[in-house]
Each structure stands twice: as C-alpha cells, then as structure tokens.
Specification:
The structure is a homodimer. Chain A is of the alpha+beta class. Chain A is about 25% helix and about 20% strand. In chain A, a hairpin with a 3-residue loop joins strand 3 and strand 4. Chain A starts with 9 loop residues before the first strand and ends with a helix. Chains A and B meet through strand 2 and strand 5 of A and strand 2 and strand 5 of B.
Chain lengths: ~120, ~120
C-alpha cells in the first residue's frame, strides 16, 4: 500500500496548550491562541478552503515562540499574535502557496525576532 | 527564506476529541484515545525517539474510523485500538520507516476494514 494522496491538502495545527500561571516557559493559550485558532478556523470556512483543516493541538513545545502553529505536509512553523497575522497566513500561505517570511520560525530559533514581537505588530 | 529542515523528524497527532455521549459519529476519546496517546508518548520517550513528537489534537474529523492518528510530514493515517497497535506503529513506522498496512487509512475510506476492528484485534 502506497501512502497515497493527502487527506487534507494543508493541515494546520495551532498549539492551544495551557500551563499554570507563572510557568517560566509561558504558554500559547495565555497569549490568545485559542481565540486566534477559532478565528482562523472560522475564516478558513468563510473563504471556502474545504481541503484545509485548522486543528487545535496540545503543546508543540516551542512555548517561548508562541502562539505557534505548524502547517503540514511542508512542516512550516509560524508565530502569530493577531487576527491580521492569521489573515496573512491564510491568504499568502494557504491560498497562494507562498510564505509569510516575517512570521516564520526557523528550526534553530529560540526567541522571537524583533519584527515578530506582538508590540511590533501593534505599532 | 526556504522552508528549511523539519523541526520534528516525525510529528504524530492523535485525535483525543470528546463529543457528547450518544453523538452519532462517536468520538476518539470514548474509544480510549487519550489513554493510548499517553501510552504512545511515554513509549516514544522510553525508546529514545528524541526527534519525534507525539501530540494530542482536536477533532481530525474521521470520527467513524477512530481512534485516529496522522503522522507528518508523510501524511499517513492510522486507526488504532490497543497498546499492541501503538507498539507496532512505533516500531514499524517511526523507528524502521515502514508502514503498518493493516492499520492504515486510505483517503477515501469511510469505515474500518474487518481486520481493523477492535474485536478482530482481540481475537
């Protein structure tokens, strides 16, 4: 049996893990992940992206970079902080097949780059 | 920026979604998904699979085939019903790079094949 075709053309996993308040690593949920994932799921539906699934997931273990999501099969990671970030990922990555380079996480990345910090996005 | 290397060599998502009792589609949690996912995570650690992550996820929307998991980047889906099934997936797929064909789900599959039903496994 070959692996066959993908069941979802793009499968998005948004970490919505919650840690106890004051945990040194923080958590995606405390940074708004659940609300943003719900927004992304609803927008994907409104946009008619039927072959895309926007899942919530448990801890993706990159808490310091959160909220984080990973998109498969390509394995591209993003940090996102606002509905505007989500809109950009939906349009550029999921619809157009491009990348939102500003928000992408590299494998070796341990902290957010200046342009990825929520404060920068709010300016 | 290229997509770069994968952050996890293999990223497993086990649906642990719970629906209200009596829901016509059923749910993975009622079929033991949470316990099996916890077992898989613990066994992966014991086996020293450091570049593999065993995540819980929200509803993967293949409830009738559950408990389900999907392994990326290859996008291979499995139905699994026991710790023996989990052990087989760990060994054959995650360690050896093969496939457990008996448990694999095809994209068009809507119900379990006879050999995938928990009763068959218990015989």
């Amino acid at each position: 049996m070959s692996d066959g075709e993908l069941y979802y053309r793009k499968h998005v996993f948004c970490c919505t893990n919650e840690r106890p308040a004051g945990h040194p690593r923080g958590c995606c949920k405390a940074k708004g992940a659940e609300k943003l994932r719900n927004y992304m799921k609803a927008r994907a539906k409104e946009l008619g992206l039927a072959d895309v699934r926007i899942n919530a997931s448990g801890c993706l273990d990159r808490c310091e970079l959160g909220p984080t999501m990973v998109i498969y099969p390509e394995g591209v990671w993003y940090s996102y902080a606002s509905t505007a970030d989500v809109d950009e990922i939906l349009q550029r990555h999921l619809i157009e097949g491009g990348r939102v380079e500003r928000l992408m996480l590299t494998p070796e990345q341990k902290e957010l780059r200046p342009e990825q910090r929520p404060a920068a996005a709010a300016e």
